[in-house]
C-alpha cells in the first residue's frame, strides 16, 4: 500500500469512546493497570479480560508498544505504550516519548489498523509538561511513515485540547 500522510485531528473527551481501529493506552512497564487513562481503558474494556491479556505479554519497556484486543471497547485493539517519567528533561524524556508515538504507529501498521487515537502520553501522573509533550506528539506523527490514515489526538482537558489545535 502506498504511504501518504495521515489526517491529524484533535478531540476533547474520553478516549475509551473513540471510534477508531486502535486506542493507545499510556500504560506502565508492568502493564498492571493503574490510574488516569490506563484505569479508564481497563474499566471500559473489562478489567479481568484486559489484565489477563496483559499478563500474557508481561512487561513493556519505556518507548515501546504492545497490542491486545480491545475487548468491550468499540476499538478493535488497544496499543499499550509506556511513556517516560518526567525528571528534568535531561534523561532522554523527549527521545522516549517520540519513540512511544513511532512504536504505536509501527504496531498499528502490523495490525492493519488504519485509524488510531492517542492520549497525551506521560502528561498526567508521569508529569511531562503538556506543551512540550504535545509538540513531540504531533511532530513525531508527522515525520513517521505509516499506513495509518487517521490519527486522533484526544485531550482530556481544555488546555491540552487548545495546544493540539494550535499545533495542527
Ligand atoms: P501518564 O502516567 O502517562 O502520565 P495519565 O493517564 O496519568 O498517564 O495521563 C495521561 C493523559 O491522559 C493526561 O493528559 C490525562 O488527563 C489524560 N486522561 C486521563 N483519563 C483519560 C481518558 N479517559 N481519556 C483521554 N485522556 C485521559
Report what the structure shows:
- With 168 residues, this protein is an alpha/beta fold.
- The chain has a single domain (7-167), classed as Leucine Aminopeptidase, subunit E, domain 1.
- 38% of the residues lie in helices and 20% in strands.
- It is built from 5 helices and 6 strands, in the order ββααββαβαβα.
- The chain has a 6-stranded mixed sheet, sandwiched between helices.
- Strand 3 (65-69) and strand 4 (77-82) form a beta hairpin.
- Helix 1 (36-45) crosses helix 2, helix 3 crosses helix 4 (130-143) and helix 4 (130-143) packs parallel to helix 5.
- The mean pLDDT is 97.
- The protein binds adenosine-5'-diphosphate (ADP).
In short:
The protein has helices at residues 36-45, 47-57, 93-111, 130-143, 158-167, and strands at 7-12, 22-27, 65-69, 77-82, 115-118, 150-155.
How would you describe this structure in keywords?
alpha/beta; binds adenosine-5'-diphosphate; Leucine Aminopeptidase, subunit E, domain 1; 5 helices; globular; 6 strands; 168 residues; 6-stranded mixed β-sheet
Q: SSE order in H/E notation?
A: EEHHEEHEHEH
Mean pLDDT: 97
User: Helices and strands: which structural class?
Assistant: alpha/beta
Low-confidence region ranges? none
Residues in helix, %: 25-40%
Overall strand count: 6
Ligands bound, unique: adenosine-5'-diphosphate
State the CATH class: Alpha Beta
User: What CATH architecture would you give?
Assistant: 3-Layer(aba) Sandwich
- In CATH terms, what is the fold-level topology? Leucine Aminopeptidase, subunit E, domain 1
Terminal Cα separation, in Å?
25 Å
Strand order of the largest sheet: 1-6-5-2-4-3
Biggest β-sheet description: 6 strands, mixed
